[in-house]
Amino acid sequence: MKIGKVTRTTIDPYPALRVEIDGKDALFSPLDLKRTLLDEYGIVYLGPDFEKDHKVILPADSSDSRSTMTLQGFTSDLTLVGIIRDWLRDLDNAK
Q1: Containing domain of residue 21, as a range?
Q2: 3-class SS at 55?
Q3: How far is CA 25 from CA 37, 41, 50, 69, in A?
Q4: Rounded to whole angstroms, how far apart are CA atoms 79 and 95?
Q5: Are 12 and 25 in contact (CB under 8 A)?
Q6: Block means of pLDDT (10 residues each) for the chain, length 95 residues?
Q7: Cβ distance 5 to 22 under 8 Å?
Q8: Residues facing 11 on adjacent strands
Q9: pTM, 2 dp
Q10: H/E/C letters for each residue in 16-50?
Q11: Structural domains counted in the chain
Q12: Rg value, the chain, Cα
């Protein structure tokens, strides 16, 4: 995964983060982010434009009867996850 320009912006007046990934723009909003997946598994959804090329496989977990799951359009890229976590922390601190 190649991460390019990262831009903090707003969309109708909500904060957003635009990240160039593999030459395409991914747009993140704190309203749309799956925070549980980010916090528990360190993964983020990139958007429908990335479903063909990016996926995360979550292993089965017998403690909650979950079978193996393949999540299309998600990534566990540590750099991107760190960028998003830093951005969310900054938003939380600005409240």
Answers
A1: 3-93
A2: strand
A3: 21, 23, 10, 26
A4: 25
A5: no
A6: 96 94 94 89 95 93 85 96 96 85
A7: no
A8: 14
A9: 0.87
A10: EEEEEECCEEEEECCCCCCHHHHHHHCCEECCHHH
A11: 1
A12: 14
